Amino acid sequence: MKNQSRLLLAGALAAAMTATATVAASAQVLFWSTQASPIEETQAMRENVLAGFEGGVDFQPQEVGPFVTRLEAELEAGSGSIGIVGALHGELSTYADSWADLSDVDLGGVEVNETFLELGKLGTDQQLYIPWMQANYVMAANRQALEYLPEGADINALTYEQLVDWMEVLATETGSPKFGFPAGPQGLKHRFFQGFLLPSYTGSTVTKFRSAEAETAWNTFKELWQYTNPASTNYAFMQEQLLNGDVWVAFDHVARLADAFNQRPDDFVAFPAPSGPAGRGFMPVLAGIAVPQGAPDIEQSKALVAYMMQPETQVATLLATNFYPVTDAPLPDDLPPSAQALGEAISTMTGGEDALPALLPVGLGDLGGQFNQVYTDTFERIVLANQDVRAVLDEQGNALASLMEQANAPCWIPDEPSEGPCPVE
Amino acid sequence: MTDAVITDVPRSVSDARAAGRFLLIASTVLLCVWVLVPIYLLIVNTLSSPAEVTGFPKTGIPSFDFGSVQFFLSFAGVARALWNSVLVAVLTMVLSIGLGAPAGYALSRFDFPGKEAFRLLVVMTRAFPLPLLALPLAVMFIRVGLDDTALGLAIVHTVLAIPFAVLITFSLFSGIPIELEEAAWTLGCNRWQAFRKVVLPLVLPGIAASAVFAFTISWNEVFAAAVMTIENRTLTAFLIQSLNVSPLHLKFAGGAALVIPALIFIFAVRKYLFAMWGIANR
User: With a threshold of 0.95, does the pTM exceed it?
Assistant: First the structure.
């Protein structure tokens, strides 16, 4: 017993000593990110993207919860260790007051997409964040499913009705529903409603939330749900279900489909999201990098921002994360299968005549989560709980309208510009 | 008449004993399966190639593909995070027993005003969700310089572990008759000596068990660890958030990386855990 307690004491002492010894911070820039959190992407970011930066980078991807808490703590304390923040446009816009102006960063002649640069100003005349990378959502299908494609349907110009027909044939012929939809807790279902389904039918995300066209959209989706694998309410990364054959056709974020294409490039095809009466709605995803005003070494952080925008870094980022460059960086010919297939589907979708881009929410600040919840709730009530579509849209429309007023957020694309908060008709 | 007598023979005692034995063995097997099957599946999938993990049907036999494991071992910082986890867990263990055991002793031996309120307050520390506490704590830690240290995180984990430490040691000390201590006093021991020579040896296994609890609480905690540490990440903070959004085969490998050290630790201290249930040295 004596020995044990002595051992315990010695252990505690040694532990306390090492604890104080490790306090000495390194001079690396801490890269605090909500992106590239899947472990393989993290590894690739560290080894292939950031390793070339002089002085070193400590890349730390986080879930949104700890990400925000830590960031707020450092902003409140007025000092901290975060050198550079990488996050989605919506996450960055919440802390507009806390970012340093990046207008004076020398990008060395790199041309950055103008629209994205404008978004990075967050409505001010300072460059509060610099666009970092972009992605999109597309459809992916197992090649076996193509045999069941209804006559006259072209996967590159599919409509929602044709998709429903196709899935119906597929379900009847194979004996089980083969469509997959990321409706799990970690899934990105709300983006489908905000940026794809509703704009395609109504040409709007917010204003026409309660319109008759929106009713048609939801009814079509309800029909599609009959041919959707019921386990979809657990799905988050459709690449897994595509790979194990649970679903043959799926909708998801390109970064969440890439693994399927990289593992079995010959088995899958990528194609644009379907179109509706109002056009082919799609939602580009924009991630940006910002520097907190309290960063330990602002100059070094700005140097890292410039490094991230260089053509080689942008291409390396594409290979690591499946997010595409926001600059004029030339893409190499030997891209991996995922980047090739998905990139092609994206350009078909965004370059088509009926293309109808719907931006991520702008100006909602920290109400972004509640905004998403309106769409998720609508989905759960209409599709999962089978409630009356009209009644649900009326009620959720009220919730959406009061949210817009609370945020005092004017309409954003694809909705018509508004004076004052975006109305819900 | 005689027939009826013959059919009404009481069942022999050995029958009942056999049935009891069957029940015992069946429940033992069930319990073992309950614990072992998930661990088995975890290990099989860890040692399989990605294609086998997502494929179906499963063979149930590992193919000893070390791809996922190797990926893990090469993932920058795993070893360091593992060390930090152990460090924080040991510190938590020492702190929570160091603070909790005296409190438990005081609760069981002395009457003092506010005793009931104190017991309630101790449990109350678990009533506030950590995401709520983490922000002000992190701000304070940054200001006082405890931020990003193993000690700082261990203090937070100690707060989480202390209710268990206090309540377990309270019931342990209550289980030792005060007469034993009184006898020691009459034989010339002072309070400290009586405690050290009589009470402590009797409760040590129990204290070790509550220390194990403290260890596992610290080992499993993610949120505070993710917010309070950056350079000195613990393994859970380091891995769980990334694993949550990683391919299946890496989830399995990461799961194994989290479970196996904990299993080894529990195995190492099993003697004390069994001692708490009175089946030591069997």
Answer: no
- pLDDT tens string, chain B, 282 residues long: the values are 455 556 677 777 778 788 889 999 999 999 999 989 999 988 888 888 877 776 667 777 777 778 777 877 777 677 888 889 889 999 999 999 999 999 999 998 888 898 888 888 888 877 888 878 888 888 888 888 888 888 999 999 998 899 889 988 888 888 888 898 899 999 988 988 988 888 888 888 888 888 888 888 898 888 888 888 887 888 888 777 677 777 778 888 888 888 887 788 878 877 766 665 554 443
Residues of A in contact with B55 (CB under 8 A): 244
Determine the structural domain holding residue B22 and report its residue range: 11-67
Give me the residues of A, 61-80, that contact B with CB < 8 A. Answer: 61-63, 65-66, 69-70, 72-74, 76-77, 79-80
Q: A342 lies in a domain?
A: no
Query: Is the minimum CB–CB distance between A26 and chain B shorter than 8 Å?
Result: yes
- Name the residue in chain B with its Cα closest to that of A23: B149
Q: What is the ipTM of this complex?
A: 0.71
Q: Which residue of B has its CA nearest to A63?
A: B241
Q: Are residues A306 and A278 in the same domain?
A: no
Statement to judge: residues A172 and A216 lie in one domain: yes
DSSP string, A61-92: E--HHHHHHHHHHHHHHT--SEEEEEEEHHHH
| Same-domain check for residues B194 and B129 | yes
Strand partners, A179: A228, A249
Q: Are residues B131 and B48 in the same domain?
A: no
Q: Do B91 and B219 fall into the same domain?
A: yes
Cβ–Cβ below 8 Å for A186 and B55: no
Contact A191, A283 (CB under 8 A): yes
Q: How big is chain A by its Cα radius of gyration, in Å?
A: 23
Nearest to B87 among A19, A77, A80 (CB): A19
> In this structure, is residue A414 part of a structural domain?
no
